[in-house]
Specification:
alpha+beta; about 280 residues; four-stranded mixed β-sheet; 2 domains; about 30% helix; single chain
Length: about 280
């Protein structure tokens, strides 16, 4: 007789569970069926299927119903709401489905399963710059088929070699021309252009971590706007590697290769910043 390790699975089974797990994980139905019916968690895929099934069951159940909750089970912490950033285990690898349960005020991103704390609320200078940038991008894409999205907007990136649903970023500006990648939660897939406005506290994250991440994922253009230097950097993907265009400084118009008519006057971008 198979030992039942996850009683909540038996208690919470409902019609359509297998299909719901497949939609979230991409795991094949035969593997999901074996994992759930036999409670077989001996492979990474089967364990993910079980964890996802438990999350779905809890989402559809009354949160106050504790009849089948085993307080000693590590798996049950996957779907439980986390109220404070300090409650997270920063050595653990998380998924997007964990991310959805977090309700703390801290802004975070998920990079290959690792939680990265973002800067607090954007600074005054950041807000002054993002307002101008958004205006120019919005005017350019207003009557075009591409979608334009502003932070906070979750982008779930498929990172080569990383676990599925383990990377969620919130760029300042996102351009997506294949709108089938957009769902009610944000973007699931690789955008065409990502724009980040560098703040003093996140420059290394944007210039190093995200640079490598976006390059690996195949983001066609990565724009980095630097208020302190009053410059704009644009990196264009060629043969799976980013090639940097000459820096755009005051007196010039920043423009990439994907949409050469999209021009961002650098003077105007930084016109509202206080004089140093």
């Amino acid at each position: 007789m198979v030992k039942r390790k996850y009683p909540e699975l038996e208690a919470g089974m409902f019609h359509g569970l297998h299909k719901a797990v497949q939609e979230r994980t991409g795991i094949s139905l035969p593997v999901i069926h074996q994992a759930l019916t036999e409670q077989d968690d001996r492979s990474a895929k089967k364990l993910l299927a079980i964890r996802t099934a438990l999350e779905i069951i809890r989402e559809r159940s009354d949160l106050n119903d504790k009849e089948y909750v085993d307080s000693d089970s590590d798996l049950l912490t996957v779907g439980e709401p986390v109220a404070e950033y300090a409650m997270l285990d920063l050595d653990r690898l998380y998924t997007y489905w964990d991310y959805l349960k977090w309700s703390f005020l801290d802004r975070v991103e998920l990079i290959k399963g690792k939680v990265v704390k973002m800067c607090p609320a954007p600074s005054r200078n950041h807000q002054l710059v993002v307002r101008v940038v958004n205006r120019y991008f919005d005017q350019f894409f207003l009557h075009k088929s591409c979608g334009l999205f502003y932070a906070p907007f979750d982008v779930r990136l498929p990172v080569p070699g990383a676990k599925k649903d383990s990377t969620v970023v919130q760029p300042d500006l996102t351009v997506i021309c294949d709108l089938s990648k957009v769902d009610e939660r944000g973007c699931f897939g690789v955008p065409d252009i990502l724009v980040e406005i560098v703040s003093p506290g996140n420059s290394r994250h944007d210039m190093n971590v995200k640079f490598k991440l976006y390059e690996a994922c195949g983001v066609k253009e990565y724009w980095i706007i630097q208020p302190q230097e009053r410059s704009v950097l644009i990196y264009v993907l060629e043969n799976k590697k980013y090639i940097g265009l000459a820096p755009f400084t005051e007196g010039t118009d920043a423009a990439g290769l994907l949409f050469p008519d999209l021009r961002l006057p650098v003077d105007t971008v930084f016109a509202y910043l206080p004089k140093e």
